[in-house]
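Saturday, quiet lab. Running sequence design on the C-alpha cells for the scaffold JK sent over.
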C-alpha cells in the first residue's frame, strides 16, 4: 500500500485535506459502515411508551417487527427526557425479550428441591389464599384501650423499580384496602 493511499485511509487526513473540514460527511465515512443500516430500519411500527424503571417517566419508542420488540430507544418528542435514557432505560429491551425472562409460573413447594410449573389460575388462587390467610392472622381490630385500629400487621408491600406509576398506585390502593400499613416503593426509597 502506497503512502498516499495509506494517508487517504485515515479520516483525519481526509477531513483536513478534503472538502469536509468539520468531519461530518464523506471524510469520516469508512467502507465498512456504508453498508450498515439502523436496527430500527426494518420495523413494522413504532409504539410510544414510558420507561418502567423509576418515577421519572422518560419517553421510549418501541420498535416492533412481526409483533416482536426489536429495539427500544429514547423518544425525542418526550418533554421529560427529550430522547435520553439512563443505562437501565436503555437496556429495557432485555426486560421484555431477554432469554432469562420467566414465561411460565414456577412454584417450589416447601422443602422441595425442584421447581414445578403451575397454570396461572392455580397460582393466582394460591396467592389469594395466602394473602387472605396472612391478613386474617395479623388482623388487629382494636388496641389495648379498645380504640378501633382495623389493620393488619401480617402484610407489607415493597414495590420494585420495574413497576410504573400506575401499577404502584393500584398496589397502594389494594394494600390499603386490605388494611396493610407497611407500603413502600423502591423508587421512592
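Result came back. Writing it out in full:
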Amino acid at each position: 500500500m502506497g503512502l498516499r493511499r495509506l494517508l487517504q485511509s485515515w479520516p483525519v487526513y481526509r477531513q483536513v485535506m478534503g472538502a469536509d473540514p468539520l468531519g461530518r460527511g464523506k471524510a469520516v465515512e469508512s467502507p465498512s459502515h456504508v453498508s450498515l443500516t439502523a436496527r430500527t430500519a426494518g420495523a413494522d411500527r413504532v409504539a410510544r411508551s414510558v420507561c418502567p424503571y423509576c418515577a421519572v417517566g422518560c419517553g421510549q419508542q418501541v420498535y416492533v417487527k412481526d409483533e416482536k420488540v426489536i429495539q427500544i430507544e429514547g423518544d425525542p418528542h418526550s418533554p421529560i427526557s427529550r430522547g435520553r435514557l439512563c443505562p437501565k432505560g436503555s437496556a429495557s429491551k432485555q426486560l421484555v425479550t431477554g432469554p432469562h425472562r420467566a414465561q411460565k409460573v414456577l412454584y417450589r413447594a416447601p422443602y422441595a428441591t425442584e421447581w414445578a410449573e403451575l397454570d396461572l389460575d392455580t397460582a393466582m388462587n394460591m396467592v389469594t389464599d395466602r394473602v387472605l390467610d396472612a391478613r386474617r392472622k395479623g388482623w388487629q381490630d382494636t388496641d389495648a384501650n379498645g380504640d378501633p385500629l382495623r389493620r393488619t400487621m401480617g402484610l407489607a408491600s415493597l414495590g420494585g423499580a420495574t413497576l410504573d406509576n400506575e401499577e404502584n398506585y393500584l398496589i397502594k390502593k389494594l394494600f390499603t384496602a386490605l388494611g396493610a400499613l407497611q407500603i413502600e416503593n423502591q423508587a421512592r426509597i
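Notes for JK: Residues 138-189 form one domain. The beta strands are 45-50, 59-65, 68-74, 105-107, 116-118, 139-142, 148-159, 180-185. Ask whether to fix the surface positions before the next round.
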